[in-house]
Automatic annotation (TrEMBL):
Pfam families: Acetyltransf_3. The lineage of its organism: unclassified sequences, metagenomes, ecological metagenomes. It comes from freshwater metagenome. One of its GO terms (molecular function) is acyltransferase activity, transferring groups other than amino-acyl groups. Transmembrane segments: none annotated. This is Unannotated protein. Residues 7-171 form the N-acetyltransferase domain.
Length: 172
């Protein structure tokens, strides 16, 4: 379990499914990420199991890191953070929070912790994110975190990259 000023952050597991579903079961969550993040609690449990299983054997050195984020004051699950790390020392990051908790700096606080963890604990270098151009809150958030816009196609082979996306790098 990791702590920031207002958040508790822990590796995701299937016991988080109900709380995470309650936070993310809202059509606004999927607006810019290609559809709903979750459809049912059972589907979310399966997805969490899939994430825990990690990348396919073809990519044994890649790592999937997923955390659930709670509000420290009451323990309520408010969102999740994810990173895929690659063997030559870089990572791709993303975050999904429930609309009830938007606009209070929680995603920024969680993402700052994740960046520090990836850099400090895991020794990773450049970090990347791909974002739909209409996703103004995510673009703003990345800029606040110090990410810089890069001209697609990205220098790194981002798994989450779609042709229309904007690409951001936080240089090492
Ligand atoms: C993107 C997301 C994580 C932001 O969460 P959040 O907790 O509201 O983020 P924060 O409060 O830390 O910061 C959001 C910033 O965007 C700004 N913002 C919010 N809505 C905005 C909008 N419609 N247009 C422009 N800026 C906006 C906020 O003012 C804030 O900037 P500020 O710190 O300068 O005031 C959240 O909207 C989300 O989960 N969306 C659905 C999933 C998603 O799209 N994930 C990103 C995939 S790339």
């Amino acid at each position: 379990m990791h702590r920031t000023d207002r958040l508790l952050i822990e590796p995701i597991d299937r016991t988080h499914a109900e709380g995470l579903f309650a936070a993310l079961d809202d059509p606004r969550v999927g607006e810019h990420i290609g559809g709903p993040d979750v459809t049912t609690i059972e589907a979310l449990r399966e997805r969490i199991d899939h994430l825990a299983a990690g990348p396919r054997p073809e990519w044994p050195e890649d790592r999937w890191l997923n955390w659930v984020v709670r509000r420290a004051e009451d323990g309520v699950i408010i969102g999740r953070l994810e990173a895929t790390t690659y063997p030559d020392g870089w990572a791709e990051v993303a975050y999904v929070f429930g609309p009830a908790y938007w606009g209070q700096g929680y995603a920024g606080e969680g993402a700052r912790w994740m960046i520090e963890h990836l850099r400090g604990e895991l020794g990773l270098g450049d970090l990347w994110a791909a974002v739909h151009p209409d996703n103004a809150a995510s673009v703003r958030l990345l800029e606040r975190l110090g990410f810089e816009a890069r001209t697609p196609p990205p220098r790194r082979p981002l798994g989450s990259y779609d042709d229309v996306d904007l690409v951001f790098e936080l240089p090492a």
